[in-house]
Amino acid sequence: MEAQPGGAAHELDDRYRAMLDEAAIGIAHVETGTGRYLVVNRKLCEMLGYSESELLSLRWQQVTEPTELDQDVPAVRRMEAIGAPYVRDKRYVRKDGSKFWASLTVSPLASPGAPFTTQLAVITDITAQKLAEEALREGERRFRALFEQAAVGMAEVDSQSGHWMRVNDALCEILGYPREELLTKSWRELTHPDDMREDEASYRRMLEDHAAYAREKRYLRKDGATVWVELSVSPLWAAGEPPTRHVSVVKDVTARKRAEEGLRQAQKLESIGRLAGGVAHDFNNLLTVILSCSDAVKDGVERGRLPDVEDVEQIRAAGERARDLTRQLLAFARKQVIAPVPLELDAVVRGCERMLGRLLGEDVVLTVTLASGPWRVLADPGQLEQIVLNLAVNARDAMPRGGALELATDPVTLDERSAATGSDERPGEYVRLTVRDAGTGLSEEARRHLFEPFFTTKPVGQGTGLGLATVYGIVKQSGGHLRVESTVGRGTTFEIFLPRTLATPAVASTLTQAQGRGHEALLLVEDDPQVRNLTVRLLRAGGYEVHVAAHPQRALDLPLDELRRVRLLITDVVMPGLDGRALAEALRRQHPSLQVLYVSGYTHDVIAERGVLDSGTQFLAKPFTGSTLLARVRALLDAGE
After folding, report:
1. For the segment 560-611, what is each residue's pLDDT rounded down to a tens digit?
2. Residue 556 in domain
3. Is the pLDDT of residue 5 over 70?
4. Residues 6+ apart with CB under 8 A from 487
5. Type and span of the H or E element at 579
């Protein structure tokens, strides 16, 4: 240490001088008023880039960044006035002109009973801290700019409550809310109800695993419109603590969804065109047989000959093929009237096994592995048999030189993780039917069109292209879903998932199998003249007394004494003016014991909305045969006695 310039000696004990020079912070003894340095330590010299002698020739004002003086001078005056230290951050200028940030603490030094004439300044270099703070502020400014100016919606969300804590203009525009109102809501309030279950599941996984997720979903705008978005949700980490907030990035994809829907509609129209062409082809063939054979029968009768049995059989066979084709179409469209009952899938497969042995041929090795246990599903037995047979026939055709075919059943539980992503699968308890072949397999192009009507990989004339479309329709109508895995040259596996039921199978009831002859009075209400005339002929041939009405109002106009003689009403479901259900209710008000048999050729949804398929009602689907009609009528009359 050197003496103070001007001759004023400041003797320091060697011990304190060593302590000053070893200090890791800058220390200075400063003259009050002039601001001249009286004593400085080595660290302060290093910080400012001056030698000790150079620094002792300077005042603190000369090494202070000029813009800082406006704050320094008033602070020094307040310290001199009240005798209390002050602390502030400020910038200093080194000898080479560079600048740095320092934390300054200035304390007045005074002798007892005398005003202070010197100060003690403690200076700590905080440049690194200031740079870090500035970088943080710059990052925050950039984040705010990115957040506010982003072309996609962005929100900071409280992870526990789900409330939006910060939102940008783009999100407000997407959802149609002003910022102030949107900040009062949570994402749950604006999520489309149909998307809530899957959204909640993804959200819970994020909270548990602290992992980001992305999905498509729908929000409800303030104006009530639905908007499709691509949502990306990421947890926000802070200082290693578990995240309590997350950031959501929301991209409006409504326009894309509408375009995709337009494409799907175009594809549907293409499928409908293919369907119409296929149906027209098949029905034209059937009608050719029916019309030609009918003309032959008519011509023979007119010439006094008995109808040729072969012509009659051809007409019946064509009618049965037309009936089966219609059922396939309705199953494909999920419109078929079905009679679901609790049944064991194993029993259905066992029932098909013997038939499959004859159908598949000797060069196909069939293996059947069934689940152990009463695993039941709620389905139509005939439809399940159709699924097994259609898939087995397809498998056989995929193995022209023979091979292995495996049928298996087993119980399966699908949770939210195992349900296939992006599909319509639902978690729950299922019974699975697996059909696996070692055939030629399917190309990617074939898999894309696999369930379309009249799409087939078989040569022309070998297959209608309705088999897998029918399987798909039946599975969907039964509340299930299916998966397909296939590799060209390595075979195909179909997995059918049908919802499990705990219901107990009902004891099967047997309809009267006699010809259904009787003598009771019946009332037939049918608006189609051909069906009406044919049904009257069938019933009267069975010995019944038949009262006929071409439309519901004529049935309501029947005299009461005539109506009370009627035991059974046979009525079409869909008719002009009044449907069959309303007619039956009106007639039963006059004749409470009247029994009712509903008949219709309409699809499942049309007649279901009229309550005709409710439990306890009797329904007969068109087309039906005379023996089926008479047996059903006889069984109902006998049950009502």
Report:
1. 888 888 999 998 888 887 888 888 888 988 888 898 898 876 655 555 555 5
2. yes
3. no
4. 441
5. none
Joined together, the tokens standing for residue 262 give 């337009």
Question: Residue 49 — left, alpha, or beta (φ > 0 → left; ψ -120 to 50 → alpha)?
Answer: left
pLDDT value of residue 98: 93
Q: Which amino acid is at 212?
A: A
| In the block, residue with structure tokens 């060593």 | 18
- Which of these, 526, 565, 564, 520, lies nearest to 543 by C-alpha position? 520
Return the amino acid letter for 542: G
Residues 376, 489: one domain?
yes
Cα–Cα distance, 474 to 481 (Å, whole number): 10
Model pLDDT, residue 46: 93
Q: Considering the chain, what percentage of its residues have pLDDT values greater than 90?
A: 18
Instruction: For 200, list phi and psi in degrees, rounded to 5.
Output: -65, -40
Domain count, the chain: 5
CATH classification at residue 395: 3.30.565.10
| CA atoms of 236 and 218, how far apart (whole Å) | 24
Would you say how long the chain is, in residues? Answer: 641
DSSP code per residue over 105-140: EEEEE--TTS---EEEEEEEE-HHHHHHHHHHHHHH
Domain co-membership, 202 together with 264: no
Residue 225 and residue 350 share a domain: no
What pLDDT digit, counting tens, does each position of 420-435 carry? 544 667 888 899 999 9
Q: Is the model's pLDDT at 456 over the cut of 80?
A: no
Residue among 199, 224, 216 nearest 254 (CA): 216
Instruction: Name the strand (E) or helix (H) holding 531.
Output: helix 529-541
Residue with tokens 């899938």: 345
Separation CA 639–CA 89 (nearest Å): 101
For residue 509, being part of any structural domain is answered with: no
- Tracing tokens 């409710």 back to the chain, one arrives at 614
DSSP labels, 268-332: HHHHHHHHHHHHHHHHHHHHHHHHHHHHHHHHHHHTTPPPPHHHHHHHHHHHHHHHHHHHHHHHH
Q: Residue 275's pLDDT is what? A: 55
User: Mean of the pLDDT values across residues 635-641?
Assistant: 79
pLDDT of residue 328: 55
Query: Residue 71: pLDDT above 60?
Result: yes
Over residues 53-71, the mean pLDDT reads: 91
* Six-digit token string for 476: 């969907």
Average pLDDT rounded to a whole number, residues 437-457: 73
**CATH number of the domain within which 217 lies:** 3.30.450.20
Q: Give the separation between CA 27 and CA 124, rounded to whole angstroms.
A: 9
Say which residues have a Cβ less than 8 Å from residue 85's Cβ, sequence separation at least 6.
79, 105, 106, 107, 108
- Please give the pLDDT value at position 218: 92
474 lies in which domain range?
341-501
**SS3 of 459, please?**
coil
- CA angle (461, 463, 469) in 5-degree steps: 145
pLDDT for the residue numbered 266: 67
pLDDT for position 455:
55
